[in-house]
Amino acid sequence: MRDINELDLQLLFPKDVQSAVEIQNNLSKSLKIQELETQKIQYIGGLDVSYVDDYALGVLVILDNKLNIVEIINQKARVEFPYIPGLLAFREAPVILECLRKSSVEPDILILDGHGIAHPRKFGIASHIGVLLDIPSIGVAKNRLYGTCEKPLHVGDAEPIYDEIGGLIGYCYLSKRNTNPIYISPGHLCDPDSALSFVKSLIRGYKLPEPTRLAHIYTQRLKSTEE
């Protein structure tokens, strides 16, 4: 993983929407979509962000490859960018990176609550963080942002998500009965099929994979202490 202290802060704090889109377009040139090297994964980072007033509350949960909790990190930061669909990284990346900076365990992959290449510019928050840190990353979202897919009918079914020219950009996966599906897409150093396979291996009877499910639980606990 690239040293967070060496990152160019201008890539996190654009002056306006046009600048943010330009940053995405430029960074996307470094995106690598390839088979995930799962044999190298020892520590998995799950990330989630919630909000109280003008502040973002970020949580990083580090799990080992048996899904035991190794470390939990939280961070609070003032939000500097408005909520705009497709530009979530500029709202959440600063607090996410602060969580990662504080961690004593370096994750081998990041699972984020958001999208990877299932995004209008093929560069959602999972891709953005993955490219910035040069680390494998996967986006797992609760709602579809971009692309077309059929709705899976049975638990364990996965339907492909296609872009406007028919390219595969992720999967819509039904992980639990009586719930809506989740939307899985590769962020960086991963491809759609290995993203689906890896996320499926992280599900333990709940809708969400354990890394982001646990991170969400802790963001809500943190939020309850702030309100």
Write the layout of secondary structure elements.
Blueprint: H1 17-27, E1 43-52, E2 55-64, E3 69-78, H2 89-102, E4 109-112, H3 125-133, E5 137-141, E6 158-162, E7 168-173, E8 182-188, H4 192-201, H5 210-226
Parallel strand pairs: 1-4, 4-5
Antiparallel strand pairs: 1-2, 2-3, 5-8, 6-7, 7-8
Helix pairs in contact: 2-3
- The parts where pLDDT drops under 50 for at least 5 residues are none
Terminal residue distance:
34 Å
What is the count of DSSP helices, taking H or I runs of 4+ residues? 5
Mean pLDDT: 96
Largest sheet: 8 strands, mixed
Report helical residue fraction: 25-40%
Outline type: globular
Structural class category: alpha+beta
Strand order of the largest sheet: 3-2-1-4-5-8-7-6
Provide the succession of SSEs: HEEEHEHEEEEHH
Beta strand %: 25-35%
Number of strands: 8
Rg for CA atoms: 16 Å
Question: Care to describe what's here?
Answer:
With about 230 residues, the protein is an alpha+beta fold. It is built from five helices and eight strands; from the N terminus they run αβββαβαββββαα. It has an eight-stranded mixed sheet with strand order 3-2-1-4-5-8-7-6, with helices on both faces. Helix 2 (about 90-100) crosses helix 3 (about 125-135). It is globular and about 40 Å long.
